[in-house]
Amino acid sequence: MPSVSSSSSASSSSVSLAVVPRLFCLVAPTDDLALLPALAEVGVDGFQVRAKQATDREVLALTRLVIGAVRPFGAMVVVDDRVDLALAAGADGVHLGADDLPVALARRIAPDLVVGATCRTPADVRRAAADGASYAGFGPVWATSSKSGLPAPLGPASLTRATGPLPLVAIGGVEAGRAGEAVAAGAHGVAVIGAVWGARDPVASAKELVAAVG
């Protein structure tokens, strides 16, 4: 399991970029889970379990399935929202939104987990870094239909303004053509849903994304 600083004053200097995936693929129970090993094999190095309507037991089972499918290829698995389920499943990390457990508390509870924090402004990123986050999931950079209730797209220039305190993982409307643009603007990596699962050939699309984030 990757290790990051447990200090509540963690900064980008205490977080190894090698720990943070360049390409996160979000995974729901309705996705074609049989493709997970192939996605990891072509270079998807991060998987985020996102099952907001599932029971705790269902999330636990899904997380364990994902870990078993992708960890042999060296990929990281994080769980959306739930520190307890991440720990119970033996996941590598957790990704926390604005309404989830505060980052600083999650860091105290789980000092060895990779902790991602959803951020929308440079101030959010600075705060997450001070609280001990490992990376910032930053967005929506472009318009997306994968999640409702999001603010207007921030645009790739917003990544440049937010760089520094933490590795940025750009999310929101990212596809292969935009992944390189996000990295050029300052993102460490990207997170995708539709660009993989909505593609005619998810594995081929993942391969293009891996090449784009380089």
Automatic annotation (TrEMBL):
Pathway membership: Cofactor biosynthesis; thiamine diphosphate biosynthesis; thiamine phosphate from 4-amino-2-methyl-5-diphosphomethylpyrimidine and 4-methyl-5-(2-phosphoethyl)-thiazole: step 1/1
Domain Thiamine phosphate synthase/TenI: 30-196
GO MF entry, a single one: magnesium ion binding
Annotated GO CC locations: cytoplasm
E.C. numbers: 2.5.1.3
Cofactor note: Binds 1 Mg(2+) ion per subunit.
Family matches, as InterPro entries: Aldolase_TIM, ThiamineP_synth_sf, ThiamineP_synth_TenI, TMP_synthase
Cofactor(s) annotated in UniProt: Mg(2+)
Name this protein carries in UniProt: Thiamine-phosphate synthase
Source species: Nocardioides jishulii
